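quick one, 91 residues, struct below
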Amino acid sequence: MAQQRLRPGPWKLVSTGTGYEDIQIDYEQFQIEPTGTVEFECRKMALYDDVKVTAYRNPVATVVSVSNTGGDRDTKNVSVATDELIKGVKL
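---
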C-alpha cells in the first residue's frame, strides 16, 4: 500500500481492483467503483493508493472559436431559457 500524491492539474484515475478504492481530491474523500474511471482537475493535490489505482495525466482541452466576434446571435432563445430558469427558482 503506497500512497501517491498528484500535483494540481487535470487527471484520470482508473481502478483495477475488485472493491471500492478511496481517493482524496483537494481534501475531499471519494470512492472509485470497481474497474471505474474518474476524471477530475485538482487545484491543490490528490491522494490515492497506487496498488489498485493507476493515474494518467489528462491533456488540457483546447477551445476553438468558431464564430467571428460581433457576429449575428439569436438572443431570443437565450432570454426565453433564462425566464424559464428564473420561474423554477424559489426565493
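The beta strands are 3-6, 9-15, 21-25, 28-32, 37-42, 46-49, 53-57.
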